[in-house]
Specification:
The chain is an all-alpha fold and 216 residues long. It has a domain at 56-201. 59% of the residues lie in helices and 2% in strands. It has helices spanning 2-19, 28-47, 54-80, 88-100, 106-120, 133-138, 145-150, 167-177, 189-199, and strands at 85-86, 181-182. A two-stranded antiparallel sheet has the order 1-2. Helix 3 crosses helix 4, helix 3 packs across helix 5 (106-120) and helix 3 crosses helix 8. The longest helix is centred in the N-terminal third of the chain and has 27 residues, at 54-80. The relative contact order is 0.09. Its cofactor is Fe(2+). It is a multi-pass membrane protein. Keywords: Fatty acid biosynthesis, Fatty acid metabolism, Iron, Lipid biosynthesis, Lipid metabolism, Membrane, Metal-binding, Oxidoreductase, Transmembrane, Transmembrane helix.
Length: 216
């Protein structure tokens, strides 16, 4: 355990100069692409006549959910974290859904996620819970990142499972019922409680279920 902590401290020191002091070179053409896409998106959200173009509105919502499931259920949970296994038809479907999101190439995204979880995603006591239902709603289930960074291999990406707009988990569960998804990984309740007790900041609701020691 001490060796693991030393390794984490070394990696943190290695990362801090380039990230927290903003010494990393800005890739301007990517920064411009990100800015432009968000600017166009915000303009569209503010000016589009949703009720007059109802079918287009339904199509937008459907594509938002479909592409997010491709990113969340495919690129993120399946290919990056290997939190479950999928048969070929489901893998093809997820790849198509991911492509609809018009993100970076899949291989690049997998590299980014690997780098983040190998060198940056460190969970400490001082980190406050950052579960966000609004983000969870927008991203179809990616709004519980404190839990996810502790258990990145949990296919639910949340200890709350299907609750609170976690449509990606719901989709994976349906695929599992049809035999397309299998070997779904998730931590046991005892493991979650152990992490909360030993590594948590004392605010988790699960602590109310743990009996307090009796005074001598």
């Amino acid at each position: 355990e001490l060796m693991a902590r030393d390794d984490i401290n070394k990696k943190t020191k290695m990362i801090k100069p380039s990230i927290f002091k903003f010494e990393t070179d800005i890739i301007w053409y990517i920064a411009f692409q990100v800015f432009l896409l968000h600017a166009i998106g915000i303009y569209g959200l503010l000016t589009f006549n949703y009720w007059q173009n109802l079918m287009t509105t339904i199509w937008i919502i459907a594509m938002h959910i479909i592409s997010n499931i491709g990113v969340s259920g495919g690129a993120h949970r399946l290919w990056s974290h290997k939190s479950y296994k999928a048969k070929l038809p489901l893998r093809i479907l997820l790849l198509i859904c991911f492509s609809a999101g018009v993100q970076v190439m899949l291989i690049n995204l997998l590299f980014y996620v690997y780098y983040i979880y190998k060198y940056i995603s460190l969970v400490f006591r001082k980190i406050k819970p950052s579960d966000n239902d609004f983000v969870n709603f927008l991203t179809t289930g990616e709004g519980y990142h404190n839990f996810h960074h502790v258990f990145p291999w949990d296919y639910r990406s949340s200890e709350k499972g299907n609750n609170r707009f976690n449509y990606t988990t719901f989709f994976i569960d349906i695929c599992a019922k049809f035999g397309q998804a299998y070997d779904l990984k998730y931590p046991s309740e005892n493991l979650i409680k152990s992490i909360v007790l030993n590594k948590g900041d004392g605010t988790h609701s699960i602590l109310s279920e743990v009996p307090m020691p009796e005074p001598d």
